[in-house]
Queue: 2 jobs
Job 1
Amino acid sequence: MPRIIKHPELRREELLDHAQTLFLTHGYDKASLNDVIATAGISKGAFYHYFASKEALLEALAERFARQALAGVQDVLGDPALDPLGRLNALLAKSRQAKVETAAEAWTLFETMFRPENLVLFHRINVAANAAFSPLLVEIIKQGVADGTFRTFDPEGVADIVMQFGLATHDVIAKAFAGGSDADMDIAIETLERRVRLYEIALDRILGLPDGSIRIGEPGYVRAVMTARRASPSSSVAAAASKARRM
Amino acid sequence: MPRIIKHPELRREELLDHAQTLFLTHGYDKASLNDVIATAGISKGAFYHYFASKEALLEALAERFARQALAGVQDVLGDPALDPLGRLNALLAKSRQAKVETAAEAWTLFETMFRPENLVLFHRINVAANAAFSPLLVEIIKQGVADGTFRTFDPEGVADIVMQFGLATHDVIAKAFAGGSDADMDIAIETLERRVRLYEIALDRILGLPDGSIRIGEPGYVRAVMTARRASPSSSVAAAASKARRM
DNA sequence: CTATTATACCGACCGACGGTCTATTCTCAA
DNA sequence: TTGAGAATAGACCGTCGGTCGGTATAATAG
């Protein structure tokens, strides 16, 4: 094999890119290191020059995810026009769609992220993201408590609950994707939308706000994402990639 | 090796017992099938006569956990003296200590169950347990809504939130065990107790109850469990088993 | 313009893993 | 008594994550 030398940082990012695709497509466990290095077109030795282990690769990937999500949300915090509730709502809305423009993109991300075999990957990302977001959330909640918008105690704890609602969504969403038929899907969408409303009200009440104050996403967002599947039929990332793989 | 034949059901239970010990001690991934069959004293062939795969073993283990937890809680439901709130509190208290008598036992279970390498195992158990407990919870909440005790809608959703608070506890507890020094531990215990109180109030508010109605566990329970470590020092299951293993 | 060192990369190799297969022994109903 | 099938044994297989000795290129010093 010819020897190709690239800028280390570029090479590292490339590795993360290919790992991201493969981990999301096949799951962390099922995607082998050989797959990663074959896709990236490098040798085992080169890989272990950049990462100490497969696990370290996963960790770096989770960190990059968290960093990107954090970057996509920074502007909300600088905006002095927003009160604590507005800031919190903006944060909740943004954090769900950072780096995702269209509903179809969101669907692809969801469909892969919430597959059962991606539990480990998802959890790592969540831990990294929580570590990054927690201070921001705590700050917002403290502000809200200080100016009387929120009526609660233990801002750190509340921030944890807010973020773990995101984690709790995992199984709910996973179930929505587990259903086979389109009829199942319709029921799943309704359940999912009702569940999101319920989470919103739960947060309202925990924060001592009137019902309807918190908005996790625009109404209809769930339906928009979930119905985007029919636009991009069975040609999901998974199918396309697994076809390319065994050849 | 001499050929030993046992009653199939006994053999199966034995396999689950040994798998439980090893999975909790070393984690699902790190505990190898060879470890399991060596501990159980049987051959590969015998193992694959009882389980289709390592994953099937995990699944069966999770099911057994859920079944046992459910059994330990059945009496609460039959008690006609309890109102919905009492029933819910009893369920929350019982489900946390089914099959666990002493604080030391609870500590050992926690210390193993919440180790990061046991995420997969923990998640499987949680999924199985949720599937088993969900109908019970829904029924209780429906009763409470019907007789005016709870003021909420979407009982299924609320039941999900209640149970996922259990799941959300994972990382909080995991952090508590991650700390090294005893000083860390003291802080972790305080955080943990405050967090439990917060979860209780969150549930109160979600269910439309006055603060202080829900009781996840008796006050001081967390401290009792966590300080039980010092009683049974480094001779944890993990240390003892890993010593016995590499010989 | 060398000589030297550090960095990026290669790929054969390793032990351990989960899983398969064939062979053997035991049980028990007909 | 026998034969079908359940229960057990263990050699074997492909693949996995990871290691290692080595090579080519880039960077630096003399």
Job 2
Amino acid sequence: MRSADGLSTRQEKILNYIQEFFAKHGYWPAIRDIQTDLKISSTSVVAYNLKALQDKGKINRQGKVSRGITLPNTLGVHNVAHQVPLLGIITAGQPLPDPEEVDVEAADKVDVPLDLASAEKLKDVYALKVRGLSMIDALIDDGDIVLLRRQDSANNGDMVAALLLDENAVTLKKFYQENGRVRLQPANSTMQPIFTMAENVRIQGRVVGVLRSLF
Amino acid sequence: MRSADGLSTRQEKILNYIQEFFAKHGYWPAIRDIQTDLKISSTSVVAYNLKALQDKGKINRQGKVSRGITLPNTLGVHNVAHQVPLLGIITAGQPLPDPEEVDVEAADKVDVPLDLASAEKLKDVYALKVRGLSMIDALIDDGDIVLLRRQDSANNGDMVAALLLDENAVTLKKFYQENGRVRLQPANSTMQPIFTMAENVRIQGRVVGVLRSLF
DNA sequence: ATACCAACCAAACACTTGTGCTGTCAAGTA
DNA sequence: TACTTGACAGCACAAGTGTTTGGTTGGTAT
């Protein structure tokens, strides 16, 4: 019996098993792991099908190397995501936590896919979970995770986390400095901008990404 | 000589080597790999330092298992990204592309961090890039990447991609079926819902995530 | 001095694991 | 029938690899 891929059912099981094994253990299975768990009679049968999988390009193998089976799209897997610390929760009316004062090592980590940004750029980035709907004009929902890079200045057009001193509130807006005053423009074009004095604004960081999971 | 982490220079070199080895080969190094490449005199020295690293929680080891050294950060599903195909662009007024009709293998891939969803759940998920501001009431901006799971029905409260037949337009809304008609509720509470007949609505998929990069 | 200990060294040992036969068996196929 | 081929079985071997044992070295406290 063959699937659309030209793999026998046994080969598909093996392929699937390899993937699950790695996900579970973090290292690749030995031939005998496959044999035992898939209840295959002999190691040579596994070797036989492994060779078939290799010929079909479904797996990579390094001859003689123990547990040297790898899946093509899993290789170098930790290069596709970078971890940034999840430092806390952002709500309106609360300044952002200072990354310096938090135990970055102990903090939860968030995986950031490297399509969003190179590892280099993620150096000084940390994550915050959004509570409430106060950021909705920045197109950020309750429960979203915001990626911020710590910086205290901004260029025009940057989306920044800005602390408004008079209201003691943090907000995420696009930043524009225009003849002495500051315009904070919501990302949502149906909302109105805030105008205020530059002295009233403290930039706390630049928004560099948003992750939303609806699972 | 010790670093801030309490690791000797040799331990740091080993740790670094393990990471590089995995990035390069896709499987973990054997003790003798470490010994040879780091020009360490004996396997027992490597074993000695490996045990130290393990005690300090810097590596995980599976006794007796060949190449069973793993790094906590890289181990297992939770810290790994999963790739889903980027099938195209979503704009208002255009039905979604049918994943069946697109060469999924050839499509660009988007890395999805597994905090957003387990690999299992990402099985039937694909990604679309958003063009235009038509999804702004779903808190989705121009340039965002939307993750969709293909399905043609939905539960109340699900955020779905709905095709409105009379307008021939796709929109992302929360789905509610209420006494014969359908309410499509924007995620943005300042916007108004759409009411329409069930026959006028085709569910094209469920929104399971959003990625936004502002770099 | 002596004792102690972390770190290192060398070699042997024993388990783990990939490979290489030699067959079997059913399904084509000339 | 006789021959081939794909897929499976069983088993033994050798190479790959983690572990152990006994010893050395240099520093530090007693």
